[in-house]
Amino acid sequence: MESPKPAPSVIALADELTGRGWRRSRKGARIVAVGAALVAASVLFGLFNRFGTPPKGEVKPARQLIASVDLSVGNPVAAASNGEARARADIEAGRLELHIYGPAPGEDEAAQAQRLKQRYGITRVYKGKTGPEVALAFAEGYNRVMRAEIERRHGRELADRLLPRHDSATNVSPSASKETP
To answer: Of 110, 124, 138, 139, which has the fewest CB atoms closer than 10 Å, so is most exposed?
Structure first.
C-alpha cells in the first residue's frame, strides 16, 4: 500500500527546518547593493571635493563672467569698412553691384538698369528711400570700392555716370544722369 502524499505546506515546513528551503539565495542582490553603495559614496565624496570649502590657507578666486562688447555695432566707420570688405569679396566672386538709396526706380530707370546688367554686368540694388546711418555708411563704403572697380574695368566715364564722385550712397539717384550706358 502506498502511503498518502504529504500536503505541500508540510513539505515546505520540513524543507525550512532542514535548511533546504525554497527561498532563493540572496547573494546576487547583496552584491548589487554593496556595489550601489560604493558608487553612491564615491559620488558623494566627489561632490564634496568639488563644492566643499577650500582648505585653510588656500583661497580660490570666485569664477567671473568675462564678456566682450563689440564696439563696431552701430559704428558708421566700422560699417563703411565692412562695406568695403564685402565689396572686395563680391568683386572676387565676379559680381558688380551698386547699393542705391533713393526713390524707387521708374520704368525708364528699370530699362536702363536692365541694359547695364546686360552690357556691363552691373546690378543696381535699391535699398529704399532712406536707411539707418550704419546702413548708409555700409553702402557708401561698398559703392566706393565698386566705383573704383567699375572705373578700372569700363572707364571713368561710365563710373561717373553711375556714381558721381561727390555723391555718397545717400543721395545717389539713378535719375541723376539721363544718358543711357
So the answer is: 110
CB pairs under 8 A, 24+ apart, for 115-121?
115/180, 115/181, 116/162, 116/181, 119/181, 120/96, 120/150, 120/153, 120/154, 120/158, 120/181, 121/96
- Do the beta carbons of residue 108 and residue 70 sit within 8 Å? no
Beta bridge partners of 96: 122
112-146 residue pLDDT tens: 888 888 888 888 888 888 888 889 999 999 999 99
Residue 158, H or E segment: helix 156-162
Half-sphere exposure (CA, 13 Å, Cβ side) for 37? Answer: 6
Q: Are 69 and 96 in contact (CB under 8 A)?
A: no
Cell of 122: 552691373
Q: What is the pTM of this model?
A: 0.52
Q: Summarize the confidence of residues 149-155 as an average pLDDT.
A: 90
Phi-psi region of 130 (alpha: psi -120 to 50; beta: other; left: phi over 0): beta
Helix (H) or strand (E) holding 171: none
Under DSSP, the state recorded for 55 is P
**CA-angle at 177, arms to 88 and 85, nearest 5°:** 10
Residues 6+ apart with CB under 8 A from 77: 137
